[in-house]
């Protein structure tokens, strides 16, 4: 504690982040944050420079998902405002990111001068970030600053949301005050409610003739995967996952059903879930993506739904029951169910070249080829677009993981997020799945992977445009420029590039890429423009029908998704 | 009028934009805005697809500066939030941009569902944009929508600021109501105040022994350049410009002094302005960039300063005097001054190769080489970094123009802004000056230039990192990855690329680039890492001195710029 009495605000912030597990801070310097960068350069935390600030935020998001907390440092205005989409995404996707923005000194703003990077009253940036973070503060008061830093990190870690700290540049080197330890309010379960809800849940599962479990994103963010595994191993329950929760249970687990999301589900998951008479939902957020745009067909009376702070069974509600306590108690009290789930035949890829080895690849075929190479040494990072919907059919094995912006669905997420994921988990190599449109948004960030000696394998699902939109409404606005993605190394390589048009070329390229662990590999996989993933095909039909209805009803209220 | 009774909200918006001079709308479709894109595709306005939404906003900003109004259309959340930095920049830089964002239908949000791209309550996006625009509205009410659209466009055009229109997707095709013409409040000058201030101004100028004029950004945004020229031609006044107002007067005009910005000024401008006994400032914003970080040395008693709505002379103030009326009245009443300004010897580049033709280029030498090729057929678009400070020494000729984010100083501005500027003014070719750091942020947007048959010449000032920061505080965080900028065509060309290391190579490359009007040209000009522009050198010394002071006073309030 004594140590802190001699610390200044910047060094205290760095020390607190490091204690919380942050070993890398992403971002781009600028004059309002330069003093903090100087401290960072002399700290135990490594700075990772990106080409753009939004990339830094996506990288910190990926890092946070893997490691429990991520951080970035940017300058005022031009830096911070560039991260808003990515930080809003971290909020929507429950990712604990600390964004640190420099700002003009408290002494500089007294006369309200027109300083560069200013876009309005000086506090507008704070006011904007308040709307997309769980905690936001300006560290302008040395008496409060250390406490604000503690509160910010604690909020990020407990609420799994981004937080915002603004550091006026004349406060970076100001000594702060270590106040007596603040009692941070810790939410706790009500013991009796917990006991009762666990009992009722287990009873219902044992009584059911076709029970099922659906696993969601919050299990990942709260690191409850081992408890989940213990529970399903002991009960024998079949388990589906939502798309945002994908890989929270190993997808080669014998009881795994696939992704459940209404009409977009894999067929086994949909049939099992929708015919169940007791569906236990753990850590789900019922957003439009995870519900297949609200096309789930479930009977509320059969549902047990545990979210962050409560459990709802049929039509009654247990409040003050935390998800982690509930899952932990379930795992501790689990017994084998009398219901026996019949393990489906595993997906198997034929090892020898198929008769279509020289035919153009289909998106469905590409996913099957990728399934053939998945292994626990890979982290899969998937961008937004049809590659996300296609990835429903990927089977992510145990000790691997799947990362995506599956609810917020921001394009351009995957390449920069993989930077953070890779640094947070050096034992696994990133396999990045990205559409051509998304790659054009942030693919050049691969230069930062290369600069840091990282070697992701990037598979560009090149279907020539914004294809998830083509199935809703086609028009010239869905076309984009054709890039030679495999030649990006010319710009800043070495990068191993592969132009892939069929299965034979894919096999050769991926074999080399897997063996080549020293550099970035990019596979430009050419797909047909009229080749939607199975899930997209199902959703497209559904959306198109809705749009038609709406077009017929011009002028009236109508719901178009 | 009758026509409007049958128009729906989307088509009315398109018609209103087109009437206001918008022939191109930038942006990327997404499902919440897709219906509007369909209308756009069937309208007389051309859609220009960009690779990222922030590029669309920068392009619309450039378009607006050239043409008087620009527009972009994006989807909710992931699209709109990606434009915030660029729109805040348009606000700071007085550029009238209309941002149109799709949003979930009014019918969809009634039950507050978790729709994709959502990051908080549905109205948070509106609340964020209110802080960075002069007008923001949701077009959810068919009775008000047409009036809101009129108000938005009128506000953008009169206030020279961005405005925000949110279009719920179930309202795109809803017929709107044409209300009786609304009297939009038009600001007007007070005739008597105007007469008096013009008289006093002219008297002071005639009495002064060393009068001078300083021309600022608002003259450009309000298109008062012809009046300014008439006034200085008739009076013979010498004239300096601010950096944000650069090129508002042709820089080859015989009375032109150069850029005035405190310690960063060109020397003739600084001497003339600071020794003047009557400085007429027209349309200046006294921000830190234009004042050389508040290093101007001026006596308030000698200043006549006209801003948007008032004129301040010495210590008294004329309110209700609009800039355009003031400049117009000055131009109409101008008489030759008795003071005779002596025209300085013009900067002349030696036409033959200099003895240093094979030596590495300096940034100062590069700017002189660029001066040698400037002509009225070029628009110069300059990014943020040392190329901006170096451009102080550029002499932009008549009928050409200079564009930069000179006050907001957002990196990544130039390449996408040039897209808009080129489309708004097809008769001039864009010459883009951009640093290596800024190019890495948005340089791949050149694929959109190429796709639209545009042929900018891009000169990359490759000084190997964030060099404007090196002179404030050096550290490894100022380093970036080295790209081979001249080989970007490998990714999406054809692009003519040139690797340039000396004057001879520059001359050969620029000659070819000027002759090659059919494709994008990129010159990767290698500069030394320790070679700041003259202005940067002066500023760096100044900043460094301040930083030293601050470092010595750790813990105390201190002003570090």
Question: Can you give me a brief rundown of this structure?
Answer:
Chain A has 561 residues and is of the alpha/beta class. Chain A has 21 helices and 19 strands.
Structural account:
The structure is a homodimer of 561-residue chains. The first copy, chain A, is α/β, with parallel strands linked by helices. Chain A contains 21 helices and 19 strands. Chain A has helices spanning 2-5, 9-19, 34-41, 53-67, 84-92, 124-130, 145-159, 191-207, 217-221, 225-235, 267-274, 323-333, 363-371, 386-390, 414-424, 436-442, 446-451, 467-470, 489-492, 503-515, 534-552, and strands at residues 24-27, 46-49, 70-74, 97-103, 135-138, 163-168, 211-215, 239-241, 256-259, 278-282, 303-306, 310-313, 316-319, 378-382, 401-404, 429-435, 457-462, 496-500, 521-526. A 7-stranded mixed sheet of chain A has the order 9-8-7-10-11-12-13, with helices on both faces. In chain A, helix 8 (191-207) crosses helix 12. The longest helix of chain A has 19 residues, at 534-552. Chains A and B meet through helix 3, helix 5, helix 6, helix 17 and helix 19 of A and helix 3, helix 5, helix 6, helix 17 and helix 19 of B.
Separation of the first and last Cα atoms of chain A:
55 Å
How much strand of chain A? 15-25%
Assembly status: homodimer
Provide the low-confidence segments of chain A as ranges. Answer: 347-353, 552-561
Strand order of the largest sheet of chain A: 9-8-7-10-11-12-13
What helical percentage do the residues of chain A reach?
Answer: 25-40%
Tally of separate helices of chain A: 21
Q: Please give the most extensive interface between any two protein chains, plus how many residues each contributes.
A: A-B, 97 and 97 residues
Instruction: Summarize the main sheet of chain A.
Output: 7 strands, mixed
Q: Give a count of the beta strands of chain A, DSSP E runs of length 2 or more.
A: 19
